[in-house]
Amino acid sequence: MKGVRHLLVRKSIPNGLVFVGELPYGSKGEFSPKMDHLVCFLPGTLALGATKGLTKEKALAENLLSFEDLENLKLAEDLAKACFEMYEVTATGLAPEIAYFHTEEYSEGGLEGGNKSSVYAKDIIIKHADRHNLLRPETVESLFVLYRITKDTIYREQGWKIFEAFEKHTKVKSGGYTSLDDATEVPPHRRDKMETFFLGETLKYLYLLFGDDSVIPLDKFVFNTEAHPLPIRNKCYQLHRIGLDPDVNGYVMIFEKNPTTIKNFGIWLTYRSRTGYHNMYKEFRDTTLNEAVEQMYTEMASRHRVRFPCIQIIKTATVPAALCKRESKKQFHDSKIKFPSVFRPGRLDLPPGSS
């Protein structure tokens, strides 16, 4: 995202819409202020990346948002506004397939969207070849995600306007909906073709936008690119391979084959700090994996000041002595290891006849 911010994020003139452009000839080539409707998935993705599906209020209360997360969430809100204004500037209230943005370096006259009352009519340029609308889902997807995370009702209001425009200009009396040749003119010419993603994605996200938050909660499910919800596995999901499934509280009960034998355990993990994400490998000696994981959580909290919810275990393994990497653990592999006493008390002098 640092590269996107530095090279692709710009503001339009005269009203400062934040958009993501293109570098068709590489990072050193000329910038193009072109943004496809397909890019409008990005606001939702940024918001999910920032809070991991939690509401902004809850993530702030639990101190889970870094400065970078807050920056990405603000960028998500700004980009969502630009995506919605791509709808608002047209005569039909439906977005074109591609829009260009008026900048200091780029401008074309006579290519407005048809809605002269729009505040951003001069910011957005729609070329004749890009004026078709295919009933795409990306903008309503981001509106759905941002409403769930921010609880700002503006996203429901915007989603309802888009739905009303679909109903007014694309609904077919005999059944179904149709794509449009030109979203900037009324009445629009219809293509007599409905893409399958309109039912599978666009209407699904609109339904969820106005539904209850308990339906497919974003901290427990993730949507793939075709809007299929997939459950998020428990943070300790790798422990499933060697133990039982988590109980209703999310805990994992593991039964060791040799619970009285000391073993070397390797734990691969990733954790989130105030500055970003970090990968780490840890080694511990203990009789059970449960105890080794407990050591890991204690050490991460004391040495790195990392809270439990910010740690994700990627992999665990019993490590042979020859493959251990940490000197603090390898020293225990010497069968002749000795622990000299730091303090050696003297003999206790007892009176004669005492035992």
Protein described:
There is one protein chain. By secondary structure, the protein is α+β, with helices and mostly antiparallel strands. The protein is built from nine helices and ten strands. A hairpin with a 5-residue loop joins strand 6 (221-223) and strand 7 (229-231).
Alpha plus pi helix count: 9
The poorly predicted ranges are 235-251
Strand arrangement across the biggest beta sheet: 3-4-5
Give the helices and strands as they follow along the chain.
HEEEHHHEEHHHEEEEHEH
Distance between the termini: 78 Å
Shape: elongated
Q: Percent range for helical residues?
A: 25-40%
Total beta strands: 10
Q: What does the radius of gyration come to?
A: 29 Å
- In round numbers, the mean pLDDT is 89
Percent of sequence in beta strands? 5-15%
Class computed from helices, strands and strand pairing: alpha+beta
Largest sheet: 3 strands, antiparallel
Summarize the model shown:
The chain is an alpha+beta fold.
Q: SSE layout and pairings?
A:
Blueprint: H1 2-7, E1 9-11, E2 18-20, E3 34-36, H2 42-51, H3 56-61, H4 67-88, E4 98-101, E5 124-125, H5 138-150, H6 154-169, H7 197-210, E6 221-223, E7 229-231, E8 263-272, E9 277-286, H8 289-303, E10 311-318, H9 327-330
Antiparallel strand pairs: 1-2, 3-4, 4-5, 6-7, 8-9, 8-10
Helix pairs in contact: 2-4, 2-5, 4-5, 5-6, 5-7
